[in-house]
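Journal club prep, shared notes

We agreed each person brings one worked example of a sequence with its structure written out as tokens. Mine is WecB/TagA/CpsF family glycosyltransferase. I'm keeping it raw so we can talk through how to read the token line rather than staring at a rendered picture. Sequence first:
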Amino acid sequence: NNICRLFDLPINNVSMSKAINWVISHRFNLSSNKFHTKASEKPNLGFFINAHSINLSFKYNDFYQTLKQADCLFADGIGMRLAANHIDEPIQENVNGSDMLPKLCEQAANEGKSIFFLGSSPGVAKKAAKRLHNTYPKLKVAGYQHGYFKEHDNKRIIAKINQSKADILLVALGSPLQEIWLTNNAAYLHCNTALAVGGLFDFYSG
Ligand code: UDP
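Then the structure, token by token:
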């Protein structure tokens, strides 16, 4: 199978294109649906794991437990590659958010899947969504929402995401908040897939 155990986390050692197929259709390849499609209505959660996440997982046990429960963990960056080389399981490809986002938008646009952008300072998610939409005019932007909200706003924000009928939710609240927020709220979200994307909206808005 595609699982590579690193720092006691099951990393999905897959190519970027397979990772994107998973985000869009929950499958690593369309002929064998080995990777589970969940029976429940919960979205599948995908996280990028880099050296920083590993450090945080040692520091915060609730974050570590959250990562262990995720549906898909991608090997992000050189640190993960070096760790995998150590156990003779070469990483197929560096699957990081900044390389994935434009490709994901392109494929989502082609397949008619919509994306909701949650996170970053006021205005940033909107700007990132608009820029990506300019690049991929067929991209369906389901909506956007900044990431500076309180716990008591969760219900309203989740309702906004669900009303948008987004297929894919991108959450840019920074680690470990974004992974913990997604894990705690997955049961209420109606999208198919949610990814934690860190500071990516800042990157794509400017
Ligand atoms: N952020 C947010 N709400 C918060 C804290 C942070 O939306 O309560 C956003 C912040 O504006 C930035 C992103 O989360 O866009 C964090 O980016 P950073 O690069 O620090 O995260 P990392 O990639 O290290 O997880």
